[in-house]
User: Which sequence fits this backbone?
């Protein structure tokens, strides 16, 4: 079967027309986002007491709950960008180039939402900058929170730098066909551009991909974020060196799931089946399978060592975890995800993009709930029963749950806005076959 | 001299976490092909974005303080 050839016009289409469905979806998401901001406003007005997260005197001693679980989840999703960029730039897996920029944008949206959760969890968010910056020379010496802020800032900024540098090539060549009213933005992005820089920029983004592939997976989600928990000896559910690999496996699972949902959704909306091909979606699905397997395997390590002949405090939290419905459902869903991926690997006719999206959504749900449970149970089962007299168990309040809908809506809105500003698929990805012809056409 | 002479966060952040970032900048200025002007452009983009993130965060949080009457830095 012949497939139509991808052209630059394809990737420009989102900028050139706005359909009725775009407007309806945008309006609905904006409504949800604004509604959640109003709820957050209520929380700011009355304090964190309106959630079930307050002080040590309530909620079973849980002061970190859904907000911190969701923060970890969003940072995990943000890893999609570097996985795809590394695959393309470092390992030469060019077939993933069409999803590279989408994944980088997912990184930026994911990190923005993770940062939002930090603000949301602060009683006085106005103090975040004025307390972090002046105290940094001292806090960096010993505070995992300061390390966390450092690495998240680096990851966000390096990814945005990557995006800006790769956009220069595209914007310079496609500018005539992009919205005129956004001209000032394009002028800033392409300031000082010359075609002689293309080869150098390509090498610079190679260095960026190399740096970020070490920084983000190994030192952020396999480093400073798990260390927020793993360095606390009084919390047996959190403590231990396995948290690094375990956090990373969950992050990579959610990241691939996010990229699959995004890529498949956009290809359906913009008729990009010939760019974001079945082959690409199937490849991403197989990667999801690998990371899901690592996720399950590392859970197995925790469960076996936590139940066999573990110290009493570890055994208490592990036995509670493995019987908790949230955990059982999360792991059950991951088994379903793996079963589908295994089935489509041995029988390709089982694969459809829609099924891959469905299992990606299951993986996203499983990773979110697992992370929230991890945070909550770590606090509920400390080594010493510091909070034995604290009344009530923790269950996320409706205010906290609304934040999930709010941040997901905000992240999608970011994409919907970006779709109108610049191409979300790299020009390189569609011009490989008729590179020279096109260059002459659009730059003269 | 023991490792404790230098606080853990200092060697961790500037000695280990910093390595990939140093590698990027060294690669830009010493790797090939290279052009100092383009490398400086990369550094400028990086520093501009760092500033934009923190200034943007500062303005956002000050706006929250104003709207909810937190009293600025009080």
Assistant:
């Amino acid at each position: 079967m012949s497939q139509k050839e991808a052209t630059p016009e394809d990737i420009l289409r989102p900028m050139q027309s706005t359909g009725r469905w775009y407007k309806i979806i945008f309006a609905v998401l904006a409504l949800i986002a604004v509604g959640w901001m109003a709820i957050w406003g209520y929380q700011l007005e009355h304090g964190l007491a309106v959630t079930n997260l307050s002080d040590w005197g309530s909620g079973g001693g849980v002061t970190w709950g859904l907000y911190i679980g969701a923060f970890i989840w969003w940072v995990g999703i943000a890893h999609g960008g570097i996985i795809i960029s590394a695959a393309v730039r470092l390992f030469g897996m060019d077939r993933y180039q069409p999803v590279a920029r989408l994944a980088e944008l997912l990184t930026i949206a994911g990190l923005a939402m993770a940062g939002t959760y930090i603000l949301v969890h602060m009683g006085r968010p106005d103090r975040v900058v004025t307390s972090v910056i002046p105290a940094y020379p001292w806090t960096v010496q010993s505070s995992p929170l300061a390390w966390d802020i450092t690495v998240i800032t680096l990851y966000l900024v390096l990814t945005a730098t990557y995006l800006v540098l790769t956009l220069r090539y595209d914007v310079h060549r496609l500018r005539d066909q992009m919205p005129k009213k956004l001209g000032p933005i394009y002028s800033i992005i392409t300031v000082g551009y010359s075609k002689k820089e293309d080869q150098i920029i390509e090498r610079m983004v190679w260095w960026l991909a190399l740096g970020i592939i070490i920084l983000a997976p190994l030192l952020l989600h396999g480093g400073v974020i798990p260390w927020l928990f793993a360095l606390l000896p009084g919390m047996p559910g959190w403590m231990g060196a396995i948290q690094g690999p375990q956090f990373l496996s969950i992050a990579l699972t959610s990241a691939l799931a996010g990229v699959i949902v995004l890529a498949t959704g956009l290809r359906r909306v913009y008729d990009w089946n010939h760019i974001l091909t079945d082959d690409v979606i199937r490849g991403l699905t197989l990667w999801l399978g690998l990371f899901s397997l690592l996720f399950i395997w590392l859970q197995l390590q925790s469960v076996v060592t936590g139940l066999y002949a573990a110290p009493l405090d570890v055994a208490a939290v592990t036995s509670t975890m493995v019987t908790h419905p949230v955990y059982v459902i999360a792991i059950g869903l991951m088994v379903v995800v793996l079963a589908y991926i295994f089935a489509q690997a041995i029988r390709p006719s089982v694969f459809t993009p829609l099924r891959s999206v469905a299992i990606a959504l299951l993986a996203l749900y499983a990773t979110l709930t697992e992370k929230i449970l991890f945070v909550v149970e770590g606090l509920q089962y400390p080594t010493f029963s510091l909070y034995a007299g604290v009344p009530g168990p923790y269950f996320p309040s409706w205010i906290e749950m609304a934040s999930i809908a709010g941040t997901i809506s905000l992240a999608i809105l970011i994409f919907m806005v970006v779709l109108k500003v610049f191409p979300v698929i790299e020009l390189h990805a569609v011009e490989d076959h008729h590179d020279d012809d096109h260059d002459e056409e659009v730059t003269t | 001299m023991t490792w404790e002479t230098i606080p853990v966060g200092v060697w961790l952040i500037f000695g280990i976490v910093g390595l990939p970032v140093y590698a990027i900048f060294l690669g830009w200025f010493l790797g090939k092909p290279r052009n100092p002007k383009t490398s400086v452009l990369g550094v400028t983009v990086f520093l501009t974005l760092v500033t934009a993130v923190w200034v943007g965060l500062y303005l956002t949080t000050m706006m929250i303080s104003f709207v909810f009457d937190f009293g600025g830095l009080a």
Q: What stands out?
A: Chain B has one domain: 7-67. Residues 7-67 of chain B form one domain.
